[in-house]
């Protein structure tokens, strides 16, 4: 009789615990469901929230509550664990708001929708200037950026052989990077853009001209620095193509000043006479490599020059040029536009 009563008592206790546990479970489930779907505040400003590499889920949840983005770190932690996302939240800077539900915040973190910063690389910039711009935007140390652009092993990994540097291959465009992108990431993105622009059709045209891709980029960089007028680029290109066919020096001012530390902004005789590997007043053919980053218009012009007999050009107004077929005509143009 006593044993029977004991068994009945134990069964009652188990039933009671089960009911209580079940009730608590239902309560927690309802609270959790409400929590993940309900924003803390209906209208709230966006703030920057940072997840560090190696940061635990518990710490991330606590920081979300501390920043006033969610109401309860415990429920966020439980929800994340139920989603089996303990190790899948991405490090980086995020733009979050308390007006987003915890579920929305969780999805942003798990998808790695980090805050991105815009940087625009203009046509005609050198590696040195791009490195300074990248550092100014707090994306990468300029010394490290420069070093990578001249690192032969890194250059080969990017698919370039016998190229002294990445000068000319950091394609001018607008990019978006996070604070967690490395210098390597930034350079790879710029080179990747160049490769996507330089199509197989352009490679075939380079072969047809008997130019290497490196020579095309080199010529395009000179064209880029000679004019800012897209309509003139094929004409400028025709002058250089015609001079190359006649075994004449390219005689481009931008090549004479490339790499000079003492250049003040005005071409002088000492610059033209300087013995440098890039000075096309002193060397025949192409310089060792590009002198800047050419845009698509200059690359296209280098590959598809206008059909002309021009051998000379001179600046008319600092923006456009006068083109000549003969040296005598060129001298008259110099007298008209430069000596007047």
Topology:
Layout: H1 2-37, E1 46-51, H2 57-66, H3 73-82, E2 92-97, H4 102-111, E3 117-120, H5 127-136, H6 142-149, H7 152-157, E4 174-177, H8 183-197, H9 200-209, H10 213-226, H11 233-245, H12 253-257, H13 269-273, H14 296-303, E5 312-315, E6 321-324, H15 327-337
Antiparallel strand pairs: 1-2, 3-4, 5-6
Helix pairs in contact: 1-3, 2-3, 5-6, 10-11, 10-14, 11-14
Q: What key attributes describe this structure?
A:
single chain; 340 residues; mainly alpha; Dna Ligase, domain 1; 3 domains; two-stranded antiparallel ribbon; 15 helices; 50% helix; 8% strand; elongated
Task: Please characterize this protein's 3D structure.
It is a single chain. This protein is mainly alpha-helical and 340 residues long. The chain folds into three domains: 77 residues, Endolytic murein transglycosylase (Dna Ligase, domain 1, 2-Layer Sandwich), CATH 3.30.1490.480; 81 residues, no CATH class; 109 residues, no CATH class. The chain is 50% helix and 8% strand. Strands 1-2 form a two-stranded antiparallel sheet. β5 and β6 form a beta hairpin. α10 crosses α11 and α11 runs parallel beside α14.
Terminal residue distance:
127 Å
Oligomer: single chain
The proportion of residues in beta strands is 5-15%
- How do the strands of the widest beta sheet line up side by side? 1-2
The value of Rg in angstroms is 32 Å
**Mean model confidence by pLDDT:** 89
Sheet having the most strands: 2 strands, antiparallel
- Total number of domains: 3
Elements, N to C (H/E): HEHHEHEHHHEHHHHHHHEEH
> Uncertain regions: pLDDT < 50 for 5+ in a row?
7-23
